[in-house]
Amino acid sequence: MTPVPTLRHGLAALGAAVLLLTAGQASAQITNQALIGDAVSDADASRYSDVKNAIERYGNRDIVAARTFLETAKRKNPKLPPVAVMLAKLHALAGNANAVRPALEDCITEAPDDPEPYLILAEDSIRGNRTIEADALFDKAVKLMQEYDANAKRKRDFMIRAYSGRTRIAQARKKWDQAESDLQELLKVDPENAAALFATGQILFVVDPPRAKEGLAAFDKARKINENLDHPYVAAGKTFESQGKSSEAMQYFQGAYKAAPNDESVIVAYGQALLKDEKVDEAKKVLTAGAKQHPGSANVWLLLGVADRMGGDLDQAEKNFLRTVAYAPANAVAYGQLALTLIESSDDEDKRRALNFAATSQKLSPDNPDANITLAWALYENGQSRQGSALLQNLKLGNIDPDSTLLLAKVLMMNNQKEGAKRLLTQALEDKRHIFVKRGEAEKMLAGL
């Protein structure tokens, strides 16, 4: 899978993260820094006591007094955001979402040249997947901020948010030239933005492979800023993988392992790539060495278990999946793999355990279609076909892995729906994005149809 860059966009995370606070709770949790920190560098200084008073009045449900204090603060320091913007942010921070837009409408009347209302509305549109609306709002904000000179700190924040948002839209629409252009504008004002650098590297590999050295340099710089990002060669490999270029991707995964054989994330990425390519023995060598170097890595043990399943060693697969959940008790995938391993047993107790593990996986990830399909299959195999059918009838199918597609094909075959099963098996065998543990079984089943 291609890493999705999380570009910094100011208040964009606000709506997704706000808690439904009461007004009293709001006054205790909202700070000057949260409210005006993007406009001034010393938000908690005594000179901004009027802002603090506004927060307190807001917490007491006295919106009129809160606005009055914000107006006083604005008169004392014109560099603060427009009063209506500060009030809109207060509403958002307090979880009063319905009051945000009316406040922003007031701002567009009171301060028509301020870009922030358009940015806030654009970010809200992105969260709601209203990209046409978001695109227009970001464009309006960019036009306004080109003339804006009231506060350099705010303008810098506007630019980061606007170009981040426009990049996300351009990437989604595969308008790579526009995405690269916006990223370059973003990096002019925020050259240490790791996510923007990482996204630049991805785009260079997608749009212009001859510029691979530039892309690797961008990945490298990004990782130096944020060590949690992928190794440059792994990032390149995943980017090629997302484009369906498996041979190019494998070259970079191999290069990453050669350059950094002790790096846990590299071991996991290379091991996963080898399993996708069905090079099980090679993957086991890489992952076994990785388990010795990183004995507490849940991801390494998980992939080792998958390799064992692919090699037919179900006892060892179970042990490795149990190690996985020992290190990562909330790993829904590991519980699902345990279920799929044990359900193949002829022992009724193992099948019951499989059902329990499948239920745990689904409980940990209730909206994941793979977890739901695994649970449905475990129900079928434990003689609870009615419950399994009911679960599948309510299932929202999305991006499921080929092993789940195979299970759905088996359900169709149980109901003598051969044409539907054939379509699903063909779909599963054409899937190159995921590891396919039971590819051999799917090929044999399709040949029989």
From TrEMBL:
Residue ranges of TPR repeats: 230-263, 298-331
Cross-referenced InterPro entries: TPR-like_helical_dom_sf (IPR011990), TPR_rpt (IPR019734)
SUPFAM superfamilies reported for this sequence: TPR-like (SSF48452)
Domain of life of the source: Bacteria
Protein name as catalogued: Tetratricopeptide repeat protein
Keywords recorded for this protein, A-Z: Signal, TPR repeat
One family name in Pfam for this protein: TPR_16
Segments crossing the lipid bilayer: none
Presence of the UniProt keyword Disulfide bond in the record: no
Signal sequence range: 1-28
Organism, scientific name: Posidoniimonas corsicana
